[in-house]
TrEMBL record:
This is Inhibitor I9 domain-containing protein. The lineage of its organism: Eukaryota, Fungi, Dikarya, Ascomycota, Pezizomycotina. PANTHER family: PROTEASE B INHIBITOR 2. It comes from Phialemonium thermophilum. Residues 3-71 form the Inhibitor I9 domain. SUPFAM superfamilies: Protease propeptides/inhibitors (SSF54897). Belongs to the protease inhibitor I9 family. InterPro entries: PBI_I9, S8pro/Inhibitor_I9, S8pro/Inhibitor_I9_sf.
Length: 71
């Protein structure tokens, strides 16, 4: 399963972030890292079900985790 970075909305409360994480777990995901600089977390999630994460009311964005290179 691929890993995704989930960013919650700027106005999301800690409880709402927990709801988003629970939603991910309930739909087959496994939480990886929890970020402190942004309101978000990484999750290993089934590729064919990623739309359930994107449509969650407290989620701002979902993007596939990948290596970033600089020149």
């Amino acid at each position: 399963m691929p890993t995704y970075i989930v960013t919650c909305k700027d106005n999301a409360t800690p409880e709402q972030i927990e709801q988003a994480k629970k939603h991910a777990i309930d739909n087959g995901g496994k939480i990886g890292h929890e970020y402190s600089l942004i309101k978000g977390f990484s999750v290993t999630f089934p590729d064919d079900a990623v739309q359930t994460l994107e449509s969650h009311e407290h989620v701002k964005a979902v993007e596939k985790d990948q290596e970033v290179k600089t020149q």
